[in-house]
Design goal:
The complex is a heterodimer of chains A (151) and B (218). Chain A is α+β, with helices and mostly antiparallel strands and 151 residues long. Chain A has four helices and six strands. With 218 residues, chain B is mainly beta. The chains are: A alpha+beta (151), B mainly beta (218).
């Protein structure tokens, strides 16, 4: 009987130790991720893409592009220059839209993409593999179709 | 006189405000209004795709601006299809087919009412500096398919200065309208302005009729 009690005690202690260690590892990982994210945001606050667009000659028609992009939860700011024929899209920290998605959004507004260039931010930063903030996906579930991605 | 009344009636079941595109961007709404001594018109368009515009138009017209008894009304559906768009580096050109069914009510001397349908083609070419536009629309009664009217609109214009996005854009435009036989051509110098998603026009025909228009894209 005493042996059983001792065995039970050992199992309980083992489980508690494992759980505590696991929590510690998770906390450590979480802290590391947050530190990486903070570092990324301080070094490269957000990605900016410059999209050269053909056919964008009228500001009245181009306003549809601004509306379209500002509806996307990943987008922070949109600048349009008719003279230079570009749309500059600034993303929220930690967010991005693929070139394919951007091309699709512009095509659906009736224009043609000539070129897309990243003018700020680094797409291949290792911290880009971090999971996105889930709050945005919860808040706007329908706003994250295929092609919508986080960096 | 009857032909003239029909001409006036059907001239205003076109695509709404002068030179406006009959489609918007995907998911976009357009509200257009036009007012002159002879007509008031309100047009609503929804675009499920950038190449398709679906909506409705309500018009009130007077054959004689001083005689309210000579009024006519149109309640119609509005369909616009962008058949081809050329997005060039410095320009954009469009080819549209427009039309739709409607119900016309004419009061006064030539009292009449009935179902009408119309069909037409519209094209434009625009840079940041120049604008050209042409549209032909023909309307027929459903009953008997008789031609009740056709109309040609032409417009050329230029921007006196190059405005940036979110700046006030201004255009000087000369419009010319006529029936297909060019029996009577009217010319209307027009000023067109747009700022963000608001557009408005003011013009005065060489006969002295003032025309006002607006358009909002939501």
């Amino acid at each position: 009987m005493k042996v059983y009690n001792l065995g039970f005690l050992i199992v309980v202690i083992s489980l508690m130790t494992t759980q505590a260690f696991s929590k510690s590892v998770n906390e450590k990982q979480k802290n590391q991720d947050q530190a990486k994210l903070l570092k990324l945001e301080s070094v490269s606050p957000n990605i900016v893409k410059k999209i050269t667009v053909n056919g964008m000659v009228c500001s009245f028609c181009a306003s549809s592009l601004e509306k379209k992009f500002l509806k996307a939860p990943e987008v922070k700011k949109v600048d349009i220059k008719l003279e230079d024929k570009y749309v500059k899209v600034s993303f929220k920290p930690g967010y991005n839209l693929s070139d394919k998605k951007l091309t699709s959004m512009i095509s659906k507004s009736g224009f043609k993409v000539k070129e897309i260039a990243v003018t700020q931010g680094k797409l291949k930063d290792p911290v880009a593999l971090l999971e996105p903030k889930p709050s945005l996906k919860k808040k706007f579930p329908s706003k994250f179709p295929k092609g919508s991605e986080t960096k | 006189m009857k032909n003239f009344i029909v001409f006036i009636v059907l001239s205003f079941i076109g695509v709404g405000i002068v030179q406006a595109h009959p489609t918007s961007y995907e998911g976009g709404f357009s509200l257009m209004g036009e007012m002159s001594p002879r007509s008031k018109q309100l047009t609503f368009i929804y675009s499920p795709y950038y190449w398709l515009g679906l909506g409705a138009v309500v018009s009130e017209m007077r054959a004689d601006e001083d005689d309210p008894k000579e009024e006519s009304y149109i309640y119609g559906a509005q369909i616009g299809w962008l058949a081809k768009r050329w997005n060039l580096e410095e320009a954009q050109a469009n080819l549209y087919f427009v039309g739709g069914p409607g119900w016309a009510v004419q009061k006064g001397l030539y009292e009449n009412e009935g179902l009408v349908y119309r069909y037409g083609v519209q094209a434009d070419y625009e840079t940041r500096r120049i604008f050209t536009f042409v549209r032909f629309i023909e309307a027929r009664y459903f009953k008997g398919h008789a031609v009740v009217d056709n109309k040609i609109d032409l417009a050329v214009g230029f921007a006196p200065y190059l405005a940036e996005f979110k700046e006030l854009n201004s255009w000087f435009i000369l419009e010319a309208s006529a029936d297909s036989e060019f029996e009577e051509v009217s010319f209307t110098p027009t000023l067109k302005f747009f700022y963000k998603n608001y557009l408005w026009t003011v013009g005065q025909s060489l006969r002295g009729a003032t025309q006002l228009g607006f358009m909002v894209r939501i």
